[in-house]
């Protein structure tokens, strides 16, 4: 409770402890306070005081009102809070969704926002639920509920992640023509509200609110990877899905693979490393990550001095550590980067050590010497062929004539042969 009352300073000093607690699970009695603080809804509510009441009091656009009222019965129809059409659950859900259409008139209402707002209302009052929905739509999943259809891009990223982390399942999906867009759209847009047991869903949302802004939807991608692995991870499971329809049915009925395994499922999600073409986000808490996530000591002492009214000491400039690029990113960008681009070659050359540059230089000189030797040898052979004298022999003699018994013909024949030989010689 002390952390909730002094949230800003506590988050700066104890962000690692907050993340560890979110991985273990936020107590149910504190979610109504923690979720708005984690996502920034409390700050938005303070900055826009009484805005929700003014939006709620105004009549909404009739086209959106009709669609919202038509969808109210579909949100958790078996939950006691939403059983009655005139109950406080459905009325509160209508007010939150109508206020959002007035807050974002160009975006309007999306059906996937219904179950998200319903889960928020189960844990907090209507005004906090409204501002949490605003933060989810604007900060956590921007463009998901607008006509831009950013979900298409994230579905493509999920396909890339599955190829790297679950190659057997990805191959099965490709063989049967099952694209992630066919089953993951509902997962991501509804934040798994329709596909996970309720207690497991709340634990996933604890992680989502804690990590979502900094790494966008990678928490959701990690959950999706674990679900696909549980459905299609083993060979016997893939044999039970011989076609496209069977595979889609198994993925849509994923709730059966998560029953009564809350702690095990969350452990798989937090231990799973998901890297996208532009991100590498671990959720585990090993020694290396603990050192990276822990706040700088100078910042902590500087904050204490500021609270006491003293001037914080200036920290000494530190050398910027070299960024360690994961191996998976190096492999995936190697075939994309143009090899003949001068700027890329210069950057790669600068990163080489002096020993490597000397070795390359010697190799280049050796190749040039060998080429020079081959060129000189070829020139000598051509010169030798040019100076080679012409051979004398049968090729310069005229065609032989048949010798007869007549002496006159024999003499004339010898004479002609001699003349032709002399002419060819001189």
UniProtKB/TrEMBL annotation:
Stretches of Polar residues bias are at: 410-426
Which Gene3D superfamilies does the record match to this protein?
A: putative rabgap domain of human tbc1 domain family member 14 like domains (1.10.8.270), Ypt/Rab-GAP domain of gyp1p, domain 1 (1.10.10.750), Ypt/Rab-GAP domain of gyp1p, domain 3 (1.10.472.80)
Transmembrane spans: none
Query: What molecular function does GO assign, one term?
Result: small GTPase binding
Q: Positions of the region Disordered?
A: 289-426
Superkingdom to which the source organism belongs: Eukaryota
Provide the Rab-GAP TBC domain boundaries. Answer: 25-212
Which is a Pfam family this sequence falls into?
RabGAP-TBC
Q: Where is the composition biased (Basic and acidic residues)?
A: 289-299, 362-388, 399-408
Q: Which InterPro entries match?
A: Rab-GAP-TBC_dom, Rab-GAP_TBC_sf, Rab_GAP_TBC_domain
Name of the protein in its database record: Rab-GAP TBC domain-containing protein
Q: State the organism of origin.
A: Xiphophorus couchianus (Monterrey platyfish)
